[in-house]
Amino acid sequence: MSESRLSAAPGRPKQARTPSGGSEVRAATSVGATLSGRDLAAALGVIVIWGSNFVAMKYALHDFTPFQLGAARYVLAVLPLVFFIRAPQLHWKWVVLYGLFQGVGQFGLLFTALKVGMTAALASVLMQTQVFFSALFGFVWLHERMSRPLVGGLLLAAAGLACFGMNFVGGGSAATTLLGFVLNLCAAAMWAVSNIVARKAQQASPHFEPLQFLVWSSLVPVIPFMLLSLWFDPVVATPQMSWSSSAKWLSVPWTSWLSVAYLGWVATIWAYAMWTGLLKRHATNRVAPFSLGVPVVGLAAGVLVLGEAVTPWQWAGIALVVAALGCVMLGGLVKLKRIKP
Questions:
Q1: What is the pLDDT of residues 88-124, one digit of tens each?
Q2: I want to staple 17 with a disulfide (CB 3.0 to 4.6 A). Which of 24, 58, 195, 321 is the partner?
Q3: Cα first-last separation, the chain
């Protein structure tokens, strides 16, 4: 998620207008006002899982191509849950579209970016620009209103991206390439499109169940990833990475298999289930600000675990993007407190 987070869940309060142009949360009596110790631990656990999963991606990409990793990730994400969780009760076009945009689009581009020139630390920050892509796409396609906190956040995010651009003008770091940077932003845009697909799916189905939707949509990317791997990972170019090479699978170290399992089961299913549970028990404005910790954990994990370096221009860009996220999420929270009777 970085893993994908569907915004709505059964049992959550109805909404009016969000800082991103959606809706403000109208607190229901069944939704808790404060987080218990257990819920706080769950929220912090999700932050750590989603923040550190960029490091797991880097480890796995040592032994898998981006498309092989995509296929393996989603195979583990659906097994064995697909045999125990009922199919979602909605039109299958939403399942397919979400699987293509969130699976093949978001993670195919993200894995490729990490492979061709992107650090885990910086990727964890850049993926959060999906908040602003979601707002822009919602404004254009869904005619959603942009609030003042959102406009301020967009301006800060634009300044942050300019700083990242200056990093390349000034020579920058060899670990981060312009192609990797662009692919990373495209991955964030794909995440934003998948958010809109999920929103439309929720509106189209009164029986929408997020976990059912996530598990069954995870079936969709498997075959496309395998086909992309067979097409772009030819045996001649990368014989050691060929699907047909038994030596390849036997030579993959346990750390890479553990990384794939972490991405498929922990970061996708377990963390998502905890996050959805929080959204069922608490209003969105109580839970969403915790996601500000994801890029912080991702940045720290990349620097401390992988020894990645961050240039001064990148630090400036990171600070502005995190400030932009804070402006959107915390600005909306302040507004809610002001209008509270």
A1: 988 999 999 999 999 999 999 999 999 999 999 999 9
A2: 24
A3: 36
CB within 8 A of 217, min separation 6: which ones? 95, 96, 98, 99, 102, 103
C-beta of residue 69 within 8 angstroms of C-beta of residue 260: yes
User: Helix-strand-coil percent breakdown of the chain, rounded to 5?
Assistant: 70, 0, 30
218 in Cβ contact with 269 (< 8 Å): no
| Residue 161 pLDDT exceeds 90 | no
Q: Mean of the pLDDT values across residues 301-310?
A: 89
Token duo for residue 180: 């990797």
- Domain coordinates of the chain in residue numbers? 37-234+251-339
Q: Return the sign of the alpha-carbon dihedral for residues 276, 280, 283, 287.
A: negative
SS3 at position 301: helix
**What is the CA angle 164-100-59, rounded to 5?**
55
